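Why run this: before we spend reagent on co-expression, it is cheaper to look at a predicted model of the complex and decide which construct boundaries make sense. The entries below are exactly what would go into the expression plan.
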Amino acid sequence: MALPKRIIKETERLMAEPVKGISAVPHEDNLRYFDVTIEGPEQSPYEGGVFKLELFLPDDYPMTPPKIRFLTKIYHPNIDRLGRICLDVLKGNWSPALQIRTILLSIQALLGAPNPDDPLANDVAQKWKEDQNAAIETARQWTREHAKP
Amino acid sequence: MNTVLCRSDAVDGTSTPCLPPPATPSYMVDHHVVEGIEERPALAPHTDTDARLLVRLIQCRQCSKPFSSPVTMPCGHTVCQRCLPAPQRRVNISYPQTLDHQLGILCPVCGQENSTADCNVDVTVSKIMALLVDYVSRWTAKHAEVVLTLEEVPQPPNDALISEKEMKGHVAQYGGGRLAGTFQMAVDGLLDYWADVAYSKSPGCEKDDLEDLDLDHFNSLRDAISTEMDCMVCYNTMLDPTTTPCGHTFCRHCLMRTLDHSIICPVCRRDVYLSPSLLYQPKNHCLASILDQVWPEVVAARKHTVSEEERPEGALDVPLFVCTLALPGMPCFLHIFEPRYRLMMRRCMEGNRKFGMLMYNQASTSQGDLGVTRFLEYGTLLHIVNFQLLPDGRSLVETVGVSRFRVIEHGMLDGYDVGRIERVDDISLGTEKRLEATEVGTAQSQAALYNAQHPPVPMTAANCPELLTTIELFQACKQYILDMRARSAPWLSERLVRAYGDCPDDPATFPYWFAAVLPIAEEQKYLLLRTTSVRERLKIVYMWIRRIEGQRLLLPRCGGYIGNILATCMGGFHASLTAFISTS
Ligand SMILES: [Zn+2]
Ligand SMILES: [Zn+2]
Ligand SMILES: [Zn+2]
Ligand SMILES: [Zn+2]
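The model came back. Tokens follow.
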């Protein structure tokens, strides 16, 4: 199936004007499938970590959002053990005017501002609410262990 | 038509060099075809006419100035916000009940009444205007020494004779070349929307290569606004630009696809109260004209690629709907609500109104060369006879089966299945006759041998349909329908017969009708799609009937003859009918 112009343009722009701390590289054999890395934002428990994600553009993209998940283990109230991300723009709030770049930026922002009130990983969110400092320390530790650059 | 005005007359007999008189195309003179501009061939940007025509693209019809806070109304016309007529109360509008829907604005261009709520600033045209004003003023400052005298040449709104005096237009001097001068003249309110312009070099202007200057200017303006012409959904130059009431513009097909998924604007997320049949929503005439005049090759290329893109790649040219069983000649009613199938149906309607219907491969069995697919390989090509679009975007689709097919190759297009199919037809009547003769003959001699051993259950027509000729099979099946009618079987009710028509007299189509009305499992009925002879189909139907009639007798299996249809005999007529699920 021919690749829509939109995906080609987005890919070109991602390559030509990369976002700081984010990279997204399409697979050679499947240009709808991207290897993504996001650097943990400064002053967040994820600082210093490099997180791998996989991103897939479904057939009816951009009518439906990209499918994306963390491959690197991460301790975060809005990301579950399978790496699935709880982010409104990846679900009902998706709009075809959004793009890969904006989604990755949203995910990077989510790392900087975990939201335990809208959790996906319930146990993590629980810990986050009970003892935020301890949770942040765990997140730091996981980052050191699993998200080595 | 070219004789309404002669431009050379409009210039005073001074010694200023007069630019070569332009060949005024006839459409420049006919005032009532402006909407048709987009149909016209593109103009090279370096003649007098072009500068005039290009500026007219962004002139307000009401005030004749370049648009300021342009509003594009649902009728597709654009005027400045300040040029909108006062709203007036609309009659017979009860929904939506808000005040701004109760008030209407009459379009000064076409006279259509638009709801005030839907008359908002056009974001794209506004951005274009801001860029143009900026670029033109910078250009003019840079090329101030190229001073031209522009004379407005008024055009009467019809062919009526107008006195010389009334024809007198404004005269002004502007720097920057023809394009810049014409724009500035419009800004200054000295250029009527309909008027033409005559250009001449002002005394002291030594510029020789005016055309190059204008061309450069044109190109810089074109580059400046080109990104505004991209659709936010497909990232291409907009094709058939269609504007939402919130003032955002997309390709028509991109907006339609977006609204298939959600009724909010992709950019501002406001609700978009547009008819789901955007097909009939007028396009944004202003943007469409700009695109057609300034980027004619791009527009042509886009039209071409879209028609290519919407056609599946290679030979995968038939949309496939994996949903239910459909039968040749029989109606099939569908309720479409999933966005991807809305898109598919729309494309079908724009195309040949045909698509393939396939059943789910629930048992995940291998489908011939295709391997395990999510659908069964045989299906029915359906023709859309009636397409009813509901206000919320869902649709009711009435189809009728055209022919049977087998999927040879398949893929996906925008979320739905597409495939290359091969028509499945019956063998010729000659072959059919030979097949019948051989089969009946063989069965009869086998039955004679078998029955000679006095088995407890002898081989008869009841358990071995091969013993019957094709016509006997057909008659037996029809007789069953008559018996059932006499017993007022519920599945032969008036209602069903009305939907599927009366029992056909053609043995070839009878099995499809029978399958359509008989309440048995679809997997059983599916077997009919694979048949290639009338006899084969009638045998299948015949065995269904035997199963239904003999449900309590627990017929023993007889040789391999009953192989393809097996009954799970259960108590109760209906239970057995509905539980007649394949065990084959
Ligand atoms: Zn105006
Ligand atoms: Zn109008
Ligand atoms: Zn588009
Ligand atoms: Zn909007």
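Chain B touches chain A through 26 residues (CB under 8 Å). The first strand of chain B starts at residue 70 and ends at 72. Bring this page to Monday's planning discussion.
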